[in-house]
Amino acid sequence: SINSERLLKRLQDLGRIGLDNDNKRTRLAASDADKAGRDRLIVWMKEDGLEVEIDRIGNIFGIWYSTENRNEEPILLGSHIDTVINAGMYDGCYGVLSGLEVINTLQKKGVKPSRPIAVAAFTNEEGVRYQPDMMGSLVYAGGLSVEDALKTVGSDGTLLGEELERIGYAGTKEPGFLKPYAYIELHIEQGPILDKEGISIGAVENLQGISWQRITIEGIANHAGTTPIVMRRDAGLAAARVITYLRDRANASNGQTVATVGTISFKPNAVNVVPSLATFTVDLRNPNEQRLQEEEQALANYLKELAASEEVSISSEQLARFSPVSFDENIVKLIEQAASKLELHSKRMTSGAGHDAQMMARICPSAMIFVPSIEGISHNPKEATNDSDLIAGANVLLDVVNNLAGN
Amino acid sequence: SINSERLLKRLQDLGRIGLDNDNKRTRLAASDADKAGRDRLIVWMKEDGLEVEIDRIGNIFGIWYSTENRNEEPILLGSHIDTVINAGMYDGCYGVLSGLEVINTLQKKGVKPSRPIAVAAFTNEEGVRYQPDMMGSLVYAGGLSVEDALKTVGSDGTLLGEELERIGYAGTKEPGFLKPYAYIELHIEQGPILDKEGISIGAVENLQGISWQRITIEGIANHAGTTPIVMRRDAGLAAARVITYLRDRANASNGQTVATVGTISFKPNAVNVVPSLATFTVDLRNPNEQRLQEEEQALANYLKELAASEEVSISSEQLARFSPVSFDENIVKLIEQAASKLELHSKRMTSGAGHDAQMMARICPSAMIFVPSIEGISHNPKEATNDSDLIAGANVLLDVVNNLAGN
Ligand SMILES: NC(=O)NCCC(=O)O
Ligand SMILES: NC(=O)NCCC(=O)O
């Protein structure tokens, strides 16, 4: 089994990178804090003798080759190390660091695997600074050209390509340069199911569809004291109506649709001025493509009605759109078997979050292993998983890799 | 009658100060742009031989004394020259510059008024950067201590006192140093009534009550994809519910209550994170104190219910609170008489906006003259008034001053 002490210590070490003065952890993609995290990761990869490669979108690969297996397709493990704003410590990092433990354990045992084993840390999985999310793996899998991706303008007005150059992670390898034999991503669930049901391993068989839009509502600025309600074209009120509409739809979906408005801004943003402009994002998800399309259509229809009734103009821009994904049945079974060998309860489940595995599934057999998130909290500094679950998940990953490598 | 050419030209000149690269006009209180506007105003005051005084809260006074009337209480005209964000050209400036025209006209005619005539430009009337609004006149009238006012922290984190020092407008006169005989404020209506009814002069007999609050809602940040709707504590959704609630109340008030949410921000403000914090302002107004209190109480009750139903915590802070004000009946009559002498239609009306006159009414007989705002648009660069109405309003002011000065 894996070296749990090293894994837990490294999670803490990486988790300290990117803390601000208020002790909030933020390592947005291609930021200075992301660079510091990447630098640390590469030191660790080299300590275990891995060959480190960086591709043009900044994805980092640490590859364990032997002379005998150099021409074989590698088994790829991994996830991401970028974070949201004021993030937890486990999201992404757990999968990357566990990958290193799997390799180190096999190395220590003197195993000579039939194929290379590699660990990837994909660029900009979170999608907070640059949209879409899962961008590094999307580019790697050929779903977005590297040129277009590098031209992405961030929420702070920066260009991803320039920021990658600036932090020294605009690599030279062409995305896709390693064709994986399989991709397995170990991750915290980030939701409440495993924790609630007291199950330590999720065998993730699919992942729900994700639709991100940025909606802009244009009204007319006017005086808050003198403008009769009936004469207002209040962009902020219209935005609030969209937010409550989305919640009503989600409530009516029997727990299937989730909808979130996570960002908003008004212009001119003054206490006594009716907002002339409201801009906000919508994150819509459903495990069923047909249903997700229905939600998108319902929103579009509602925006049309609202534009007419509030006399505002409304436009929307798609920031990300990913259909639901099914994972590789064979690997999902290997996960269940590994759990049962280790006497762990497991459960087949759907991922509510987007993950790099959903992109890698386009180019190789892929699946995911989940471990419980205490109280389902994630994208929050309180994100936590019991050490025993972290260790169990890494050992399941080790067993699946052993199996796939034919050790 | 007044020199309309000079008035219209100066409105344009002052209106060009504070334009940004996008041609948006913003002269927030005690900013660099406000300083530039103040400097220009003082040049104009000195051109007409006025004595310029600045008080400790930065209010500017240009006083026309004669040797004979130096010991009399002055007739004070004026308004403010600070603006909202992306403002129009007339709000405030019209009253200040018309005051200068009234004095200049009397000077040119060789009138020797029985009392000094003075023009004030009060600090921070808009209240966008520092709350409460009408701060300069409030301090002048003794409703807020100058020490407390100077300690006000702005929406940008600055201290008003430090900013006034920085721009060179922390004067030495004690607020209240001139005890006015009367205060008359000429202003654009900023609302649609006069324009709609084709009436050129509003004789403003009262002003509605204003209540400003900042509301902070605390929820729990969580993952937008994995957190079931029923487990969310979504501060942003709760904020949206407050916005639509306020609109429903206003709609039910028979055109009496107006309610505006002009500013908002979410934290962490990321597309895939349920907001943990929402902060927004509420601007509530009603011409009747009793009704305004009912609206405040209804909102407070709603916030309590909402905190329980959405499992969030909600706090609110009063940023400004002014009861409705009645103006001086005698001056209102003089305004009506002046309009009728000039063959202008006039109408008694209520001010929907807050004005410095409502503070000055605490220390001397005060009233306001309104002129039409085309389509009722204000706090917007499209704010406009026909030249003929601007000139008519200034001539009404001239006549009222002549009357009060016993010329
Ligand atoms: N795992 C994760 O938080 N990914 C970010 C993309 C998403 O919002 O689901
Ligand atoms: N006249 C004016 O716009 N004053 C600002 C205070 C208010 O919001 O009413």
From TrEMBL, chains A, B:
- Annotated Zn(2+) 2 binding lies at 91, 126, 379
Query: Does the keyword section mention Cell membrane?
Result: no
Q: Which residues form the Peptidase M20 dimerisation domain?
A: 208-308
GO molecular function (one): metal ion binding
Q: How is the cofactor bound?
A: Binds 2 Zn(2+) ions per subunit.
Q: Which cofactor does it need?
A: Zn(2+)
Q: Which domain of life is it from?
A: Bacteria
**Similarity comment text for this entry:** Belongs to the peptidase M20 family.
**Protein name (database record):** Zn-dependent hydrolase
